[in-house]
Amino acid sequence: MSLPLLVDCDTGIDDAIALSYLAARGDVEIRGIVSTAGNVEVAAVHRNNLLLAQLLGIAAPISCGAEAPLAQELMTADDTHGPQGLGHAALPAPRRRADPRSGAQLWVDIAREHPGEVVGLVLGPHTNLALALEIEPELPGLLKRLHIMGGAIHHRGNTGPTSEWNVAVDPEAAQRVLAAFSAAPTRPVLGALEATETVRFTQSTLERFEALAAGTGHPVAAILADALRWYFEFHQADGLGWIAHVHDPLVAAHAVTGDFASTRPLAVDVELAGTLTRGQTVGDELGRWGRPPNVDLLTEVRADAFVEHLLGVLERGLST
Ligand code: BDR
Ligand code: CA
């Protein structure tokens, strides 16, 4: 049985690894990809998604999302992900054609076509999912589950001092999505920075990607190795050493396998008004708000086992 997935991402180096991982698995059926503005502008995200889908043999519709967040100007992270979003990788123009629908409409159409079946996976800002909720307020009940990479609950931010990138790019969208999915039959699973930053690629991980590129000649393996080198350089320039925190693949792998981390319920909301803390995800550990938990937060990550699993799937899947 394959798991039907709708992936919304701002590709992005770690998004590209997550998409490659999902395509390399034999038991996932990607039903749609939504390109969301974030790491780079939406046109570049969309080109990256079209190219990766073409090279990975993903046949699903790929829709371009909104150009800007709901209520603030778009910020991009060219320093983190490179001017095109995939670091040092050379990127030929994709031959794959885009789906003409908006990103928001693709969310709605895919959820309505297969009510209760599709798992949503958000690896970028929440803009297009928030817009989809305007078209179809019943969307939370039409999905099987929602998995999100975003937020930093008990952890410093990676964008502002207390804010994580995917939430900081569009805080209003993240807040609306969390509010709407509070009524979902199944709580969304949130992979925040305290979980995803336990995943730490080192030089030996980079060498496995380089060996994969050299050994298979697969064009995506070469793109990932060249992209990752940039990600290491960024982390080093940011004072974190010669490593890379690779966020999105852990959340993707947990969405598919339920493995590599535990979860615990928590009430979480997004700070919209803070003068220093806008975009912070606040977790109510002591129940002061009197609200029921609205997310299952990833915790107790088995990071080494996950990295080995990720490499194994890519090595098997990109060799064929
Ligand atoms: C998130 O922000 C982006 O830069 C990454 O792709 C990931 O989704 C981590 O904060
Ligand atoms: Ca991302």
Descriptive account of the structure:
By secondary structure, the chain is α/β, with parallel strands linked by helices. It has one domain: Ribonucleoside hydrolase-like (Inosine-uridine Nucleoside N-ribohydrolase, Chain A, Alpha-Beta Complex), CATH 3.90.245. It has 13 helices and 13 strands. It has helices at residues 13-24, 42-56, 78-81, 103-113, 127-135, 139-142, 165-169, 171-181, 193-196, 203-216, 219-237, 248-257, 303-317, and strands at 3-9, 28-35, 62-64, 99-102, 119-122, 145-149, 189-191, 200-201, 244-245, 262-266, 268-270, 281-283, 295-299. The strands form 3 sheets. The protein has a 9-stranded mixed sheet, with helices on both faces. Strands 8-9 form a two-stranded antiparallel sheet. Strands 11-12 form a two-stranded antiparallel sheet. α1 links the parallel β1 and β2. α1 (13-24) packs parallel to α2 (42-56). The chain is globular. The model has no long low-confidence stretch (mean pLDDT 97). It binds beta-D-ribofuranose (BDR) and calcium ion. Residues 9-10, 12, 14-15, 123-124, 248 line the site of calcium ion (CA).
